[in-house]
Every structure is written in structure tokens, then in C-alpha cells.
Design brief:
The chain is built from 12 helices and 12 strands. The protein is an alpha/beta fold and 408 residues long.
């Protein structure tokens, strides 16, 4: 078993979980540590990577806005939900959706031009991942009118017109602190004014059957008159490594490094980054960023086989958010990107290579969406919610079964 300092490092990198007890001790689960150690050492007895599917379909239906390449929609379908309508304006995304699911009702139009009133009380869930746009509202508190001109306004308008039992919105974790939390607070107040009680949690994909460290803010609004208790995904006691995810990955197209960058990236070991380069190359490669503060861990980043991947971006070869293959000196391919986002190999992406990377990078991981969908079904079925602990970033005392307590 590894010493406590290793465990603390793993937790800091969000490879394992910890919680705070009432005495402010940081608590780890020994079984989870052992499972992670088995994954790191290659002693795991089974490959945990799989696309999740529910055994049975439910009768519950959904409308999705800002559907993108279909990550949320496919995860909901795998969870047992049925789609009444998907809305998307990007042409490549529309082609991806219609090519893979011809039976889905996909509307390729600006969401602001769509009247949703025909679905009033006919749909169980309205969902969507809207971009986080700032809007002027301080001191006015005019409800929905304060959000006019933003995509959140269109999401809230759809909820108002449809009146579903549940509305589910997902966004970047940064929405928690956007404008010092005021943006999120107004969004919640708007949903409450529409007759919904709201709750939100940060969900971490690496503990929900996704081989990628990706944090998203999940907002669930339930109609007050129905007295539903929202259920959120409970994190698993394991994570999935990149090696497990890319096993037997089919070949596909991908962008390539130029000669200079390829020679630089050859010097970076698996799991390493710019800090592993000679100092003169660091300075030349990073330019002014070399002298700035922060970890800058995305520069010249090569992924590791024995950990979940870092959050995928819209391109695997961006200077500050590099996603280099662990072994080969090249960016991840389109199909490898899709594996990490838990799209099945049969899901084809339309458009240029750049458009395909963008679609996949912007998507909600399919398995994460599956867990969200299963929780929505459980909420609608009035199942009893289980406590969901939120990650605590504060570094406090470490307590591990089998070890003496250690402070860091």
C-alpha cells in the first residue's frame, strides 16, 4: 500500500475521492484506494470501460435544447428516456444527429424562433447545456426579463411554455463563481419564479464511468406542485483509465503536429508536460507564458495510460491545453476523443476534422448523461434520494484506515 503522501497527491489530482467528517478530518475509503492502486499497477481483473445501457425503457419523455453532437441525448436514450424534440442550430451537429438517429425529431433552427407551447404538459423533462452568458440584472430583479437576449432566457422560456415536471440544466463549474455567484443566483430565482424548486451539484465525470476528469454543474428544477425530490448521481468507488478506454480503439482521422512540435513532444514522458523539457526549450516553446504563475500543466501535456484523461477541449493540439497520445507522438484522433467521451464507435461525426473535434469536445460525456437520465427517472418515480457528498477543496487532516492520521 502506498504511503499517505501518495494518497494525498492522488486526491489533489482528483483521481480518488475524500470527504470531511464532523471534526474536519479528511476521510478516505481504503477499498477505493486499493482499487485505484490496482488500476495504476495494471492488476485490475476486468476492463471497466463500457457504454452504459438501462435494461428497460421508461415511458418518460424529454425535450433537449442546444443538443450539440448528441452526448446528452444519447445518454438519456441509453438511460431509457424517449425524445420528443431536439433543438440545435450548428449545421455539422444537425447532420451528426440526423445521420445517427434518423427517427429523432431534430429541429435545426434558432431556439428563439421556436414555440414550445404545443408540448405544454406533454413532456416530462426539459434539458439543455446553455452557454454561460452574463446579463445585466443587479438591482432590478425583473425575473425572466433580466435574462432576455441570453440562451438561458430561451431555456427558461421553454420551461415556462412546456411546464415539465423536471428541468435539467448543465454548465461549467465556473458558473458557481461567475460574477461572484450572482449569475447562478438569478438563474435559480428565475426558475423559482416559474414555479420550480431548485437544487444543484457539481458532478465529476471521472467517478461516473467516464475515463476523463471533467467537472460540470448540474441544476435540477422540479415543479413545486408535484413535490418531487431531486436525485443526483452518486459517485462510484472507482475510475476508468485512458488505457482501458482506448483498448482496441478503431483507427480514424486526426490532426498532426508540425515537425518542430513533434520533436519537442518526443521529449515529454507519459503523464508529463512542459516541466519535463530542457529549460531552454521550455522558454522557447512557452514564450511569455513561461514567466507567468500557476501550474500551466496543459502546456506540452502528454496523457498517461494509467489515469483518466484530462478534460477534452475543442482541439487536442492547442498550445495551452495539449492532449498528446501517451505513447505515440501525436494528438489524440477523433475516434480516441469519442471513446474518452464514451460515444460508441458506431456514432459518426459530420463535418471537417476541426468540426468533429469541436463537437466531441463540447459534448456531455454519454455515460455521465446516462447517470443524469437514470436520476431523472428515479426522481419522476418518486424514489428516495440518497445523500450526495460534494467535493471539498480545503486541505485538512488526512485520516485513512490502516494509517496513522497525518496532516498536510
Amino acid at each position: 500500500m502506498s504511503p499517505p503522501q501518495d494518497v494525498f497527491t492522488w486526491e489533489k489530482k482528483q483521481l480518488i475521492k475524500s470527504y470531511l467528517d464532523r471534526n474536519k478530518n479528511r476521510i478516505f475509503n481504503l477499498e477505493e484506494i486499493e482499487e485505484f492502486y490496482r488500476m495504476r499497477s495494471g492488476n485490475r481483473t476486468e476492463n471497466r470501460y463500457r457504454i452504459l445501457h438501462a435494461e428497460h425503457q421508461s415511458h418518460f419523455t424529454a425535450i433537449e435544447l442546444f443538443a450539440g453532437a448528441g452526448g446528452l441525448a444519447l445518454g438519456f436514450e441509453n438511460a431509457g428516456l424517449q425524445h420528443k424534440l431536439l433543438v440545435e442550430v450548428d449545421r455539422s451537429c444537425i447532420e451528426t444527429l440526423t445521420n445517427n438517429r434518423p427517427h429523432w425529431h431534430v429541429v435545426g433552427e434558432d431556439v428563439a424562433k421556436i414555440d414550445f407551447s404545443e408540448f405544454r404538459h406533454q413532456v416530462d423533462i426539459v434539458s439543455g447545456g446553455f452557454p454561460c452568458q452574463a446579463f445585466s440584472h443587479a438591482g432590478f430583479r425583473r425575473g425572466l426579463e433580466d435574462a432576455r437576449g441570453t440562451l438561458f432566457f430561451e431555456f427558461a422560456r421553454c420551461v415556462r411554455e412546456v411546464k415539465p415536471p423536471i428541468a435539467i440544466a448543465e454548465n461549467v463549474k465556473g458558473l458557481l463563481t461567475h460574477h461572484k455567484g450572482e449569475t447562478l443566483q438569478i438563474m435559480l430565482e428565475i426558475l423559482e419564479d416559474l414555479g420550480y424548486q431548485t437544487d444543484y451539484h457539481v458532478v465529476r465525470a471521472q467517478f461516473l464511468d467516464v475515463p476523463q476528469k471533467r467537472e460540470r454543474l448540474l441544476i435540477v428544477a422540479t415543479r413545486k406542485d408535484l413535490n418531487l425530490q431531486p436525485i443526483f448521481p452518486a459517485e462510484k468507488s472507482y475510475s476508468i483509465s485512458l488505457g482501458e478506454a482506448l483498448q482496441n480503439c478503431p483507427p480514424s482521422a486526426g490532426i498532426q503536429y508540425n515537425d518542430r512540435k513533434r520533436q519537442i513532444m518526443k521529449l515529454v514522458p507519459p503523464g508529463g508536460n512542459w516541466r519535463d523539457l530542457p529549460v531552454d526549450i521550455q522558454k522557447d516553446y512557452m514564450k511569455n507564458s513561461y514567466y507567468k504563475g500557476g501550474g500551466r500543466t496543459g502546456f506540452a501535456k502528454r496523457l498517461a495510460w494509467d489515469e483518466p484523461a484530462l478534460t477534452l477541449t475543442c482541439s487536442p493540439a492547442q498550445t495551452q491545453t495539449e492532449r498528446c497520445h501517451p505513447q505515440e507522438t501525436r494528438p489524440l484522433t477523433v475516434r480516441e476523443y469519442a471513446r474518452i467521451q464514451t460515444f460508441p464507435d458506431t456514432w459518426e461525426f459530420a463535418g471537417t476534422i476541426s468540426a468533429q473535434y469541436k463537437q466531441i469536445g463540447n459534448a456531455i460525456p454519454v455515460n455521465l448523461a446516462y447517470h443524469i437520465g437514470r436520476c431523472a427517472i428515479a426522481t419522476l418515480n418518486r424514489e428516495t434520494p440518497q445523500p450526495v457528498r460534494q467535493p471539498e477543496p480545503t486541505e485538512l487532516q488526512l485520516t485513512i484506515p490502516g494509517f496513522e492520521s497525518s496532516s498536510f
